[in-house]
Here is the input.
Amino acid sequence: MSTVDATTPALELRDLEVAYKVRGRDRPVLRGVSFTVGRGESYGLVGESGCGKSTAALAIVRYLPRNGSIPSGSVTVAGQDALALSGAELREFHARTVSMVYQNPGSALNPSLRIGSQVAEAFTVLGVGKSEAEDRARDALARVQIADPGSVMTRYSHQLSGGMQQRVVIAMALSKDPSLLILDEPTTGLDATVEAEVLDLVAQLQVELNTSVLFISHNLGVISKMCARVGILYAGRLVEEGPVETVLRDPRHPYTVGLLRCVPRGGLRKDHGRLDTIPGFLPSLGADLPGCVFADRCALADDRCQVEEPSLESVGVGHESRCWHHDRAQELPRVEAENVDLPPIDRAAEPLVRIDGLTKVFKQRGHDVNALTEVTAAIWPGETLGLVGESGSGKTTLARTLLGIVAATSGTAALDGRQLPPTYQKRSQEDLRSLQIVFQNPDSALNRRHSVQRILLRTMKKLAGVGGDDARKRVLDLASSVKLTERTLTQKPAQLSGGLKQRVAIARAFAGDPKLVVCDEPTSALDVSVQAAILNLLVELQAEQQVSYLFISHDLGVVRYISDRIAVLYLGRLMELGPADVVFDGPHHPYTEALLSAVPTIDGGGRHRIKLEGDIPSAANPPSGCVFHTRCPRRIGAICDETEPPLVQVEENHLMRCHIPLEELRTMQAAGPPPVSAAPAS
Amino acid sequence: MSSVAAPTARSEARTARRERTRLLLRSPSFIIGAAVILFWVATALLGSRITPYDPVFDQTPDLSQAPSGDHWFGTDRLGRDVFSRVLAGSRDILIVAPLATLLAMIFGTTLGLITGYFRGVADDTISRIIDAVLAIPLIVMAVTVVAALGSRSTWAVTVVIAIVFAPIVARTVRAAVLGEAQLDYVEAARLRGERAPYVMFSEVLPNVMPPILVEATIRLGYAIFAVASLTFIGFGLQPPSADWAVQLTDNYNFMAEQWWTVAFPALAIASLVVALNLVSDSFQQVFER
Here is the structure.
């Protein structure tokens, strides 16, 4: 559609500066960012939150907030100077040239319009007649692999699953065959299996349509799967750029090196070693940075780094790094916490927590929703039980039932051999003290009107029963054990970074010397470097205090790192339970196999994706027989549809709910992914 | 280290407060509104000490005089100086209206916290009662309460307004509490064994203060109006009080010939109501940023 020839890059940023005006002062957010996305290329932009990734995207599509300005630099999209556009030209630019897909598809779709008319709108804007627009909308939905576009078009967005919503958004974004498609964390809110499907779809469409893509993500695994080239952004500066494999294999900037080391991967476990972290904090918004932007956090930095900014220098074919010491970047000293001794878990002893046949049925508009069905498990002192499964699998319900936030419909939970009352209101202060929780989102978990000190003192008083000077002293001890400074105590949550807030939340859970702490995705709202520090902290506390964790996470690398045993839930049923290595390395349940194959890893390759057909069935109407048979790629026949397999011990400490004998699974899984539903080769 | 660092932390909190104050002081509508309110508060406090004539007893021989150099706002049928009476007339309304608002806020906030926090049966029951009370007009409620109390004193007026306003406040607070009670810190408080009243008042209430403050300023404006209305139809203060609404009652029959006896007290009421609304608008802008 564009009149420029095919060699014009889809996007060219030249020395782009963006500033936000805060309290009357312009604070630079992007500091001279330059990169180019070629025609048909997919370029990844990576960095932690606050580095300016989304600001770059907003500047390109000219959607900066009102206090944002572009003092200098240029943005050229398909040969068109995007910064010079205004009024009708800008509208035309938005309508035809660029498309953007945001993180949350739920809020990107209009809740009061049917999907059909929303997608058709994308065509009528381009001047297509009404009935033709409808036909093209149907085609567009079919193109994003929506099986029944006709029926989807008559629905509203809330009636679609998250993955389906994101497909619709992508269909709309591609409707105009854009010169540039920007994807801003498009799969961050989705389950691993759904994420994998959406990523497959985007990759496939990109090849088919030869779309140029700017892919923004904090997840290096996703970037390595999706992009040919990658740019690493730190404090508004592009610090490294190059082909994805080269950058991930041979990083030449200490920040990239640090980022890669933070991620638990390659089967790393807490008893193998600690995680690396990146010390310090991102410079504050608009800070004055005369030297290298990363100097303050870099162990390689010398005097020159503090005062003189390095330029982006070539370090290989198409590979550039903004570092004085790029040749030594990989020698960056490790910032490991000191090793801790995790005492062995004595499984001959009485378990700390035993849940027996735990079942929870929610009543919803007259229907019974089986959130949890007959879950039986035990957690021993000092042990971490990892809980994995897609959303809707009952992970959170299990945790909430154990804590007594919701009462179980049947079944029991026992602590130290004593049966616990079903709800926390009926539990003793001693029981409350023993079972605590760290929530996913520290913003919501801490009262923003209370100081850290007040939060901890009150918890200390209620759970440990101490007050006055004694409590004050113990709060100081507690704060130092989670590595909070005294200064933090007088602050309110809003003044703390996400990582510090999560430390406060952990301190609160530990105020009464708990026996079991439920960790409900405690690091998923955090950046990877902060995540590593929090995981290290949890492991340290476990080594010191023999506390047990029930650890819920959708990040399988994290779960594997911290867990001793892993429980896999699907539709409220326990599908597999066993030692972490056994569950991960297999032979595993076909569902576990699919979950694991869905995760994009930095190391890339190796595992073939196993596609799961369709969405998770409704818990209000679970499938007959094995609940997984409707999506199981290894279904063996009628027995799966008719008879629910029992959860049986298939080898020592390893339980599984599958009709296929273990040895057969071992042979099958060694032979590779199931043939019928294997992902198309890419 | 804490001795050095702690003040910094506190100063950060102060910065946020100072930022809000700065924004308020920069807003012209806040300045104008606050000035008018302060003016009426000052006249209420000083009363007859600053008025050129005694507002109640000083009856000059000049009856029903139009505004002039001696009597800026003229005189009424009894020869009292309208200017002095307007200056002195803010006292009672500035006691009754804030008191009624305060009662309504306390009562309404408590109801809102209870309904928003417990939800379920408590919410359904109380909310329906609130709906029912909201359906009763001010005047009907006034007659009912006066009959029940057997008095039409300023106390009765205060109680009437508190009863009429509390449900409105309760609704606002309930809406704010509903969102707040979903947050995990509330769950965390329950999981350490806190009782409901503690969670409601110590955990949730501080977080819903901004909408409550805004609601309070809005209610205060309406309360001034309500006090004036009830006084005008004969509740509360009685002649010869210099209260603005009493002046209206006294003189509205003669409005055609002696416009100044009605216009100036009426303008005074209007200025106070408008000023309160200006302030509440500015509050809203600053708190809900």
The radius of gyration of chain B is 23 Å. Chain B touches chain A through 24 residues (CB under 8 Å).
